[in-house]
Write a structure and sequence with these properties.
By secondary structure, the protein is an alpha/beta fold. 65% of the residues lie in helices and 8% in strands. It has a seven-stranded mixed β-sheet.
Length: 483
């Protein structure tokens, strides 16, 4: 009997950890269950291990484990299970087994809108909320390289002096001005890229142009991040329905439709809509900035608890991303305080596990010790996902420990008025952080506190297992274990 053939595509918004953890989990599960699988990954370096048309045609089923666009149209007509990337990490065997059992439903693509056949209730049939989330994350995943690369260059220019890019300032440096200018060009593309790729996720290439224009108007009009989000969704759905309306035109005019009619009408329509919306959206954007800034000054401990819990509750998932997106929006408007807290909240969980395996070494197995040591690097570089393997073993215990540790780190970060002018990098951007040493101390205090709680829990579990094993040995042999 030949093996069941499965193809899969994984992708998370940042494309750093979840994408590849899901791929590895699916491959291990397939090997265990005797299935053959090829997994295509959609990370920040692009598409790797790309599926061919023949491989898709020959597959008995498809698993999409993604929170972003992974070109699902090509799977139309195949049995497909479509879940979040975190589902594949947590429960890969169930997904593989469902393909083997023939439980996946046929995927249909209709005018660029993917749908599963009715009756697929077992596997997260796409809700409106999840569809919106995937479109949003597609925009964010394309935006991040511009934000991170540009933001870090701007931050590096501050090493020469906060005003070193200003020719009229005594601290002026031509190289600092070059860094600042290069970074600003990339960073200022953030909102058009975000809006463009949200729209592209909804209506493919036709939405890309209208989305870019809508994002530019939001940026120039002061509508900010929220304005760009609205522009992206408006442009995407506008172009999707416009494409449907023009579906009946003669086939000979399809080229004209793609390069002339759709861009012309799309740009005109989104420009008109955003011109009307940009003033009220600017007011909302200003209010949000003032609210967060006021909250930050009035109650930094409460804000730290909120952001800390968001950063650690799902370890790089949607809640963590919500905090990060808010920080990006504020960073673009010159607020460097909020991002500092998000850094701390995201870095603490993996560092908790790292310190725990050092302080309580004998209560962890070799595999956990190795993973924990690696988390010194992952935590220090703001890759929260390093804590996932530890959380997966007992989330009811581990998630509260992570949330407590992150809340302590984040609250202390806000109390110490730390500022981080870069959008990513963890301690790598320490030289450009304001009150950097206090920031390191805040993260270490939260991480070590969490690690002690984790270690004490692990110690108790270790002794409990040892007692149970000794009792089992006595029952089986009649020999009482001594020592």
């Amino acid at each position: 009997m030949s093996k069941i053939k499965i193809v899969a595509a994984t992708g998370c918004p940042t494309g750093i950890a979840h994408t590849f953890m899901a791929a590895e989990a699916l491959m291990h599960a397939a090997e265990k269950l005797g299935a053959e699988i090829k997994v295509e990954t959609h990370g920040q370096v692009g598409i790797e291990n790309q599926l061919t048309k023949e491989e898709i045609e020959q597959a008995d089923g498809v698993i999409i484990a993604a929170d972003k666009d992974v070109l699902a149209d090509r799977f139309s007509g195949k049995p497909v299970i479509d879940v979040s990337v975190s589902r594949a990490i947590k429960d890969p065997e169930t997904l593989i087994q469902s393909i083997i059992n023939g439980e996946a439903k046929t995927y249909r693509s209709s005018n660029q809108t993917e749908q599963l056949d009715e009756g697929n209730d077992d596997y997260e049939k796409k809700s409106v909320a999840r569809i919106i989330y995937q479109h949003l994350m597609n925009g964010i995943s394309h935006m991040l390289p511009f934000v991170v690369g540009g933001g870090v260059l701007i931050a590096l220019s501050f090493l020469f002096g906060i005003n070193s890019a200003d020719p009229d300032d005594p601290s002026y440096s031509a190289f600092a001005a070059f860094l600042n200018n290069s970074g600003s060009i990339a960073f200022n593309l953030m909102l058009p890229i975000l809006a463009g790729y949200i729209a592209s996720s909804i209506s493919q290439r036709s939405g890309l142009v209208a989305g870019f224009i809508g994002g530019m108007i939001a940026d120039q009009g002061g509508a900010g991040f929220l304005g760009a989000l609205i522009a992206g969704f408006l442009a995407g759905y506008l172009m999707m329905y416009l494409s449907r309306a023009l579906k009946g035109i003669p086939e000979s005019l399809n080229g004209l439709k793609a390069i002339f009619i759709l861009p012309l009408v799309g740009i005109f329509a989104i420009s008109g809509i955003m011109t009307l919306l940009v003033v009220p959206m600017s007011s909302i954007n200003t209010w949000m900035q003032e609210f967060v800034t006021g909250f930050q000054g009035a109650s930094p401990i409460l804000l730290g608890i909120i952001v800390g819990c968001m950063g650690a509750s799902d370890l790089g998932g949607p809640i963590n991303k919500a905090a990060y997106v808010t920080a990006l929006a504020l960073l673009a408007d010159g607020n460097y305080y909020f991002m500092a807290g998000v850094f701390s909240a995201s870095m603490t969980p993996p560092l908790i596990t790292a310190f725990a395996v050092v302080f309580f070494k004998k209560y962890f197995n070799q595999s956990d010790r190795s993973a924990g040591i690696v988390n010194f690097v992952l935590g220090s570089t703001q890759i929260t996902e390093g804590a996932i393997p530890f959380a997966a073993k007992n989330p009811i215990v581990m998630i509260p420990i992570f949330m407590l540790g992150s809340s302590i780190s984040t609250a202390l970060t806000y109390l110490m008025a730390v500022q981080v002018p870069a959008p990513h990098g963890g301690f790598l951007i320490f030289p450009v952080a304001t009150n950097g040493l206090l920031w390191v101390a805040a993260v270490l205090i939260g991480s070590i506190t969490g690690s002690i709680l984790y270690g004490l829990y692990q110690k108790r579990a270790f002794h409990k297992n040892a007692t149970l094993n000794a009792s089992d040995h006595t029952e089986r042999t009649g020999i009482k274990h001594v020592g």
